[in-house]
UniProtKB/TrEMBL annotation:
Key words, A-Z: Membrane, Transmembrane, Transmembrane helix
Keyword Transmembrane (UniProt): yes
Polar residues: compositionally biased ranges: 132-149
The organism of origin for this protein: Megalops atlanticus
Residue numbers spanned by region Disordered: 132-184
Pfam families in the cross-refs: Ig_2
UniProt key word Nucleus: no
Ranges of Acidic residues composition bias in the record: 151-172
Protein name, per record: Ig-like domain-containing protein
Transmembrane region(s): 95-120
Length: 205
């Protein structure tokens, strides 16, 4: 329990104790603790002219004014003390949860900031690698295209040469056929000339 200017203060969720006492005038007796906020009364037996009231967990419902009354019986006669001065009790919020939340938030930031930096650096490095790979791929594609074009030119040139060779061979065979025809005509002319000479010779004979 903390004593403030306006009275004692307790933290919500913590335990607190209110003690009532009286001068040692009568033996025994008991104390009534009255809570004016709800008209609730609790009773404890007096031990050594005092009694303690324990509250295990403070809540906002415990906030209010408390007072003590002492009662005892002497020779079948009941005696009651006047009501004590009011004791105002304040219940304030716990600082543990905000502090814990702040600590957890700080730890989370300490973990997230390096992770974010690592991801940014990794992405930047990946982009640089992609930029470096693109010219190489372009060169490779150009080389492949040039090679493909060279192969196509060579194939066209071979086809052209084959066509020329084939045409030359056709011409050669055609010339050869023409020559053979000419030779056949030459032989016929010779044979005809010889037969005419023989006929002339026979006529003169």
């Amino acid at each position: 329990m903390i004593w403030a200017h306006q009275g004692p203060e307790v933290v919500r969720g913590s335990s607190f104790t209110i003690t009532c006492s009286t001068p040692p005038q009568y033996p025994g007796g008991f104390f009534n603790l009255t809570f004016t906020g709800s008209n609730r009364t609790e009773t404890q037996v007096a031990v050594n002219h005092s009694a303690s009231f324990l509250f295990p967990a403070a809540d906002y419902s415990h906030q209010g004014n408390y007072s003590c009354v002492y009662e005892t019986t002497v020779s079948t006669r009941n005696f009651s003390s006047p009501q004590s001065e009011l004791l105002p009790l304040m219940v304030r919020a716990s600082l543990v949860l905000p502090v814990t939340s702040g600590v957890l938030t700080g730890l989370l930031l300490l973990l997230l900031v390096p992770a974010a930096i690592f991801l940014v650096c990794r992405k930047k490095r990946h982009n640089q690698e992609q930029v470096q790979k693109q010219p190489r791929n372009a060169c490779a594609m150009n080389t492949y295209s040039n090679r493909g074009q060279t192969n196509e030119d060579e194939d066209e040139e071979e086809d052209y040469v084959n066509a020329e060779v084939f045409n030359d061979q056709d011409d050669y065979e055609q010339v050869k056929e023409d020559d053979s025809g000419s030779e056949f005509d030459y032989e016929n002319v010779n044979q005809l000339q010889e037969s005419e000479d023989e006929n002339i010779y026979e006529n003169f004979g």
